[in-house]
Amino acid sequence: MKEFSPLISGPEAAELILESIPSPVILVNNDSTILYINGSMEKFLNVKRSKIIGRPLIQALYNGQAFNKKGGYRSPLMETLLTGREFSGQLMEIKTVYNVAPRLLKVNTFLIKDAGGKIKGACAFFSSNAHDSRIIQPSTVPSEQFETIYAFAEAIGARDGYTMGHSEKVAEYSRLIAEKMGLDLKTVDLAYLCGIVHDVGKIGIPEEVLNKKGPLDSEEYRLIMGHSQMGASILSHISWLDDVVPIIEAHHERYNGTGYPRGLKGEEIPIISRILAVADAFDAMTSDRSYRKAYSLEKAVEELKMNAGTQFDPQIVKVFLELLREYM
Questions:
Q1: Among 287, 303, 53, 22, residue whose Cα is nearest residue 163
Q2: pTM
Q3: Active site annotation includes 186
Q4: What are the structural domains of the chain?
């Protein structure tokens, strides 16, 4: 039998494998110092690995705060290292100093031991598959209905990659705001679903307008303004989305009545539409767009404060800024 001779072996082979894994991976030693993160984890955190490798896990990613307000570990990896509890495909909210909004990810952790059974460290894998991680099915929505909702979002994402990622973040922000406001579970889930499909009307806008690098002319702006009504029209053909339609149509209304398409104001605007307006604007401001670079967090916060009471519901701005302070 011919003997197999690997081209790469030892630590070099292990690192090559970890870099090839599409899921975020992080490795710590037994005193919780970060030894390694792969390229996928760099993208997830949006930070260069050189900034965090060699630093204690809690200091690097959690501002020194090991526990959340409920007394639970902020880091599943730290929990594994300190308690020996290993996670296998468990869905968890992952929040760090680098991702302001929590992400719902499937977590796998395990202890690393030497031949004698001595613990040398721990490793975590976070599922990055869109269907089973970033998007979690709301508890009040049947799975086949949720699949339909997500299909709409993917249709937009196929034409405009920014819009797909944007919709996911708007959905997450909207869910958090609704929860913080103490709204009931059905409304919280509805806020999330509306975040996923709030831009579905953009499917009717030409790609050269969606991705234009310069300012829009009057006709192009008219097309963009039409996406909320277009989205409502598309969704109106699905009977079980009756509650979603008026929310999507109104998500660009302004609190002072100067928005579109109907010029609604104050509490005439559905509460979830008012939530979407804040979540939508914040993510748009803090993301790179084809025509400008992302605003800093400080500038985005200042814009929300400045437009509270005119463009945005001031109470919702207040709640969202409280959330930002908590997660930062």
A1: 287
A2: 0.62
A3: no
A4: 10-132 (3.30.450.20), 137-327 (1.10.3210.10)
